[in-house]
Design brief:
453 residues; mainly alpha; 3 domains; two-stranded antiparallel sheet; 4 strands; globular; Zinicin_2; Hydrolase; Zinicin_2_N
């Protein structure tokens, strides 16, 4: 394993591009096309057993196959030790006390669990399915739409088989990606992705112990730090009820707009003059084809959904890092070193955009977590802790993507709101709703009286 502090195995080496292709769950839509898919079909069938025909094997992703491959990749896992369970519970209890001083969001009252890699795989799979399925469904549709009409008609009788092949291909790639992720995740929501069951704070103590060995920091400090980050995330997920659905809906919106562009492939093949019939020209054309990038260009008509996803993940992780630093900074001197190790982890592959690219199949830029943390720090300094956390009351109150680089205007807006004596936007909305409700009741009473007369 290529580890560096909190670093992930998704590191950089000479085979990085090849690994990326192998782990991308939608890598099957690469340059190979239909021919390679047919050639791989026999290999897919070999040894798949009941994974093919089980209910979990149906649909756009063969999840039974994905889970089987992931478990094979994880290998034999020791059960969680009782002393680790106690250490995690004690660390979370301490973290919650410290977080009370750093945020107005109360404790999540979540169940504290200690997981191993198998637990991570089985308990996060439902949310991974929610994230992966819409992308796979619309990827299949976009793939079919990108074919010429004649090809679509020819594929008609084979469509069911092609869908099964596609689901198996997705399952194989997804299984490899999830197996890698399950073997290295430190908590249930490492990157601001709410993949754990609702109301669960989950930590993988064996993985935390492994990365502790690479840091010049006491193992207890590392465990408390990891638990504090996870507890802070769960406060957001619990008390900002729209947050989880907004993250998921951004993925779904992106998926709905998926488009596969093969025009550059058609243009390249036309320029090769394959219709000439000249063996020498055809041989030269085949040589040129080997050096061409014939991968379809995958994009989305709803590209704004990716920007919203980037921004939201940055705001979540930036807020978490700020309140954790505020909660721990004066209590544990190694907090700054741990923050730096966490940033290295993001930079070397342990990050939301890497997880989405490898597991979900969405490529996006690295969320600007450092900029988001600085924004929250400046907001806290300008308007205080209560007003800072009230920004999470409604998605429309949150900073936009441009505010991460230039937060002054956003902060000025908060200061202007604060100048209005006693102005509370949420309270105003509640008062308006109550007034409308009373008006409706008065009208109903008047209608009832008219009916009696």
């Amino acid at each position: 394993m290529n580890s560096n502090g909190f670093g992930f195995h998704f590191g950089n080496d000479d085979n990085d591009d090849e690994r990326r292709d192998n782990q991308n769950p939608f890598g099957g839509f690469g340059s190979g096309g239909l021919g390679d898919m047919l050639n791989q079909f026999g290999q897919m069938l070999s040894g798949m057993g009941s994974s093919m025909n089980s209910p979990e094997g149906a649909g756009p992703v063969n999840y039974a196959l994905a889970e089987r491959i992931a478990r094979q990749q994880i290998g034999k896992i020791d059960p969680v030790r009782e002393q680790d369970t106690k250490a995690v519970a004690d660390s979370v209890r301490l973290a919650e006390l410290w977080l009370d001083d750093a945020t107005i969001l109360p404790t999540s009252d979540a169940t504290v669990e200690t997981w191993n890699a198998e637990d991570y795989l089985s308990k996060t799979m439902p949310m991974w399915k929610r994230l992966v399925t819409p992308v796979a469904e619309h990827m299949n549709e976009a793939q079919l739409e990108s074919l010429p009409e004649e090809a679509r008609q020819m594929m008609g009788p084979m469509l069911q088989m092609m869908n099964q092949m596609s689901g198996m291909n997705f399952g194989m790639q997804l299984g490899n990606a999830l197996g890698d992720l399950a073997a290295q995740s430190l908590t249930a929501s490492d990157f601001g992705l709410p993949v754990a069951p609702n109301g669960t704070i989950a930590v993988l103590p064996k993985h935390v112990a492994q990365i502790s060995q690479d840091l010049n920091v006491g193992s207890q400090d590392v465990l408390v730090y990891i638990c504090t980050r996870e507890a802070a995330r769960q406060r957001l997920f619990k008390h900002v009820p729209w947050l989880v659905e907004r993250l998921v809906s951004s993925v779904e919106e992106y998926a709905v707009g998926l488009v596969i562009d093969t025009s550059h492939i058609e243009e390249a093949t036309r320029s090769l003059n394959l219709e000439s019939g000249d063996p020498a020209a055809i041989q030269e054309a085949m040589s040129q084809l080997q050096n061409m990038d014939l991968s379809p260009k995958i994009s989305s008509r709803n590209a704004g959904a990716v920007t919203r996803l980037e921004t939201l993940l940055a705001l979540v992780e930036g807020w978490v890092e700020f309140v954790v630093t505020k909660a721990m900074g004066e209590r544990i001197p190694t907090t700054n070193a741990l923050n730096e190790a966490w940033r290295r982890r993001r930079a070397t592959g342990g990050s939301a955009e890497q997880a989405f690219a490898k597991v979900v199949g969405i490529e996006f830029a690295a969320p600007k977590v450092a900029e988001a943390m600085e924004l929250w720090r400046r907001v806290d300094q300008a308007v205080g802790q209560q007003r800072r956390d009230a920004v999470w009351d409604h998605p429309d109150f949150l900073p936009a993507a441009g505010d991460l680089d230039k937060p002054a205007q956003f902060i000025d807006g908060l200061l202007d709101d604060g100048e209005v004596d006693g102005f509370d936007p949420i309270a105003e909305i509640n008062r308006l709703e109550e007034m409308l409700k009373e008006q409706d009741e008065d009208k109903k009473d008047e209608d009832d009286k008219d009916g009696e007369n």
